[in-house]
């Protein structure tokens, strides 16, 4: 059974940092990109970042570029470092595995999400 599990969310003040982790299991992910999406209350799910299977190619949403950093230390584990957090970053963050893309429809496996709340 394929599982994708996020961790590391929490409550932080504006300007603070968090590190999200994502661990996938149940199949090989060596050819999969790993990405992050987020969904704030009343808003649609949006792309945040993605890292390709080669651990080199990355994508970032303009809203997080320069503040968030994605990394991957194995085919099944990757991280999203969130720095200089803003209240607008408050959302449920979802980890996903799929094709290297900014489109949520290109990701096949999804986690349940982890809440990130940034207070002003």
Describe this structure in words.
The structure is a single chain. The protein is mainly beta and 120 residues long. It has no helices and 11 strands. Strands 2, 4, 5, 6, 9, 10 and 11 form a 7-stranded mixed beta sheet that branches. The chain has a 4-stranded antiparallel beta sheet with strand order 1-3-8-7, with no helix packed on it. A hairpin with a 4-residue loop joins β7 and β8. It is globular and about 40 Å long. The model has no long low-confidence stretch (mean pLDDT 96).
- What is the overall shape? globular
**What is the N-to-C succession of helices and strands?**
EEEEEEEEEEE
Radius of gyration: 13 Å
Q: What does the average pLDDT come to?
A: 96
**What's the story with the biggest beta sheet?**
7 strands, mixed
* SS-derived structural category: mainly beta
Total count of helical runs of at least 4 residues: 0
What fraction, in percent, of the residue positions are helical? under 10%
Distance between the termini: 40 Å
Set out the fold topology.
Elements: E1 3-7, E2 10-13, E3 18-25, E4 33-39, E5 46-51, E6 58-60, E7 68-72, E8 77-82, E9 91-98, E10 107-110, E11 114-119
Parallel strand pairs: 2-11
Antiparallel strand pairs: 1-3, 3-8, 4-5, 4-9, 5-6, 7-8, 9-10, 9-11
